[in-house]
Design brief:
With 282 residues, the protein is mainly α. The chain has two domains: 7-46 and 173-281, no CATH class; 59-169, no CATH class. It is 59% helix and 7% strand. It has helices at 7-43, 55-70, 76-83, 89-101, 104-113, 129-138, 161-169, 174-186, 199-202, 232-235, 238-263, 267-281; strands spanning 123-126, 154-157, 209-214, 222-227. Strand 1 (123-126), helix 6 (129-138) and strand 2 (154-157) form a beta-alpha-beta unit. The two termini are 49 Å apart.
Length: 282
């Protein structure tokens, strides 16, 4: 049986394939590389995937941050609550009265005698934002990032702690912002390339990112994105990183398959399919 090949249709398929593997493949790769950056951002702590990922998550993160700062740094109310737990009424009443009078030199001596602190030198009155920052940072684990209070010491802030908390809270989402900037750099869609990432993470606009853009490579378009935040690994688990890559890869493969199927209808259909896949990926 003779085999007949319709040259026109074959030519259409070749043109469609060229459209897909050339500019089209680059467009699809760029669109899904951006998705990958968004997935990485939302999987970097504080997690922002799903419902309540915007203002509610920011509020929750600031609340957690305040608890971390207040762990090694106390205020007058904290001392008062601690004094109320002292069993001996006379001591309890005396400490409360001294606290209300602001007589901290006497208080530290009594606390040392009661073995609540190691010595009077272990009761420190903090004044100024610099001292607050020093205590906060020095009582922060380099491994977990969580703060701790040393046994036998009290660091008390007479004022300024809320100002310090508000200042530090502005940096919530900084680590995530590295991925947001990667998404913006990769782009490939109209509007904000960091679409899909909460505003509190996008607003930082830091220098903690890098993108190697090889999207113009017709044979192997690719993007290498790096979050250069020093503590990134504490906030992004290897398993979450793999999930982000997997999701973006699976979505891209599906897009390519659908575009290839449409390519059999001709170059115009291929270009239309590519445009739709890129738009859907945005």
């Amino acid at each position: 049986m003779p085999v007949t090949i319709e040259a026109t249709k074959l030519d259409d398929i070749l043109k469609a394939y060229s459209a897909l593997t050339g500019k089209g493949l680059s467009q699809i790769t760029r669109a899904h590389a951006r998705i990958c950056a968004v997935e990485l951002a939302n999987r970097t702590q504080p997690f922002t995937s799903g419902a309540g990922s915007g203002p509610a998550r920011l509020k929750q993160s600031v609340f957690y941050l305040e608890k971390q700062i207040r762990r090694p740094i106390r205020i007058k109310q904290d001392l008062d609550e601690r004094f109320q737990k002292i069993e001996e009424e006379k001591v309890r009443t005396r400490l409360t009265n001294l606290l209300n009078a602001g007589r901290y030199n006497v208080i530290k001596q009594i606390l040392a005698n009661l073995k609540i602190i190691k010595s009077p030198e272990h009761f420190k009155i903090i004044s100024g934002q610099g001292e607050l920052a020093e205590i906060h940072k020095s009582r922060r684990s380099t491994r977990t990032g969580m703060t701790y209070s040393r046994p036998g010491e009290i660091n008390m802030a007479k004022s300024g702690i809320q100002t310090y908390i508000n200042k530090v809270a502005k940096a919530v989402g900084y680590t995530k912002s590295g991925w947001a900037e990667c998404a913006r750099k990769i782009g490939g869609l109209s509007g904000d390339g960091a679409r899909g990432i909460p505003a509190f993470a996008k607003r930082q606009r830091g220098n903690n990112w890098k993108v190697d853009d090889n999207g113009a490579d017709k044979d192997n378009p690719n993007f290498v994105m790096t979050n250069t935040t020093p503590w990134i690994r504490r906030l992004l688990a290897a398993s979450d990183e793999k999930d982000a890559l997997r999701i973006a890869r699976e979505k891209m493969i599906k897009s390519m398959r659908r575009a290839i199927q449409q390519a059999r209808r001709g170059e115009a259909a291929a270009k239309e399919a590519i445009a739709k896949e890129v738009a859907d990926a945005a």
